[in-house]
Amino acid sequence: MSVREFKICDPLYDYIYLEEDEVKIINHFIFQRLRSVRQLGFSDHAFPSGTHNRFTHSLGVCHLAGLAFDSIFNKNKSLPVSSQKRRIFRRMVKMSALLHDIGHGPLSHSSESLMPPLEPLNLGKYLKTAKGRQARHEDYSVKFIIEKEGLYGVLKEIGLEPLAIAQLLHPDFLIDTHFFEEEGLNFLPLLRQLISSDFDVDRMDYLYRDSRSCGVKYGLIDFTWLISHFDCYIKDQELFLAIASEALYTLESLLLGRQHMRLIVYFHHKSAIYNQMLKNYSKDCQWRLPSNILEYSTWTDSQLFEKLREDKKNEWAGRIIEKKPYLRLYELVCFEKDFQNQNSISVLKQELIEKNVNFMVIDSEKHSIKPSKSISKIYPVYLKNRALNQFQELGQSPAFLPLPHRKLQRIYVPPEDFLKAQNVLKQMTELK
């Protein structure tokens, strides 16, 4: 029986092709909510065109997941998997990619500080770390997938196993479905790595899409070349992601682009202070995003801004709504190994304290927008030498150049104290 396909125009890929079952999920009201969740939170304060949403990003990741899967399995037709099971694996990977961000709250990562403790989500039997931490968007994604009030019934209806999709998406998922084992070979590591690793299709899409939308060049990665060199490696009866050495420079370009995007776009001084003010607000307010997924599915960006307007008497809610953020006074950027030798931040902080100037310090390493635990920390990626048909862990290859890690720290002050703070900084500089 032929599979009906739908075609969507996309500024990155020209066309995204979707199957009828994927469209059923996309048309569900839970998925449609992502149209009203901005991909980059407050980043439009710095990049006015960066207002794209999680909806279009999810479609893009689904598209790249299909390309990546085909690139690997078309090269490895001798793998012990039937054409029927291979078809099922492909559907599972594409669906996992489509749903990987279904649990994001308003303004995406920006609202994670407003999420409740994990316990009320009742995921204890499914997750390893279900106690003593705050819920994250990945937890809500699992809840949407495995609960009957969410997408469970629709996934079952189209012949996909919700628990197996959750197992693909969440690194702490406890239930082993054995769904991804075939002829004694475990396909789970490889399929997980396509969705979450240092070189996953999620990163390829958001770097490319965010760059295009914000009008910058840092994340414009040659994803076509990189995906065309995707392969796999079998070790101890498990399948892992391998990448041909011809794509080595593209790998390094992706890592460098991600670091530049992180510091220049995602940690831009304007959007970073808004994220920090929302985080401060979350410490003051008496409410949290609902743990019930039907209630949670009503929360969009506009809903959050309405709540902030109601709480405008709170300093941080008021500053966000009235667009009166703290202003950047000083910025220090250096490589991580040199950071401990820099004392300018400490000296300036002490001077501001003595002059009774309020301030905030925001560190790129402690910023509210940072990735959750990555599956790439669990599973190694291999570099393939095609001429010799040899594989080596990427991090151990002498050909691979790991990037030095930059850290960035800023001091912000209230706009009403900015001139006073500038004088403090000027005096400190003159003393040097």
Q: How does this structure look, described?
A:
This protein has 432 residues and is of the alpha+beta class. It is 44% helix and 13% strand. It contains 18 helices and eleven strands. It has a four-stranded mixed beta sheet with strand order 5-6-9-10. A three-stranded antiparallel beta sheet has the order 7-11-8, with helices on both faces. A two-stranded antiparallel sheet has the order 1-2. A hairpin with a 2-residue loop joins strand 3 (181-182) and strand 4 (185-186). The radius of gyration is 23 Å and the shape is globular.
Kindly list the characteristics that best describe this protein.
13% strand, alpha+beta, 432 residues, single chain, three-stranded antiparallel β-sheet
Short structural summary:
With 432 residues, the protein is α+β, with helices and mostly antiparallel strands.
Number of helices: 18
The CA-CA distance between the termini, in Å, is 77 Å
Low-confidence stretches are: 368-376
Radius of gyration: 23 Å
Mean pLDDT: 92
The gross shape turns out to be: globular
Considering DSSP H and I runs of 4 or more, what fraction of the residues is helical?
40-55%
Could you tell me the strand content as a percent range?
5-15%
Work out the number of β strands: 11
Topology pattern, helix = H, strand = E: EEHHHHHHHEEHHHEEHHHHHEHHEEEEH
Q: What does the main sheet amount to?
A: 4 strands, mixed
User: Order of strands in the sheet with the most strands?
Assistant: 5-6-9-10
Overall structural class, as computed from helix and strand content, comes to alpha+beta
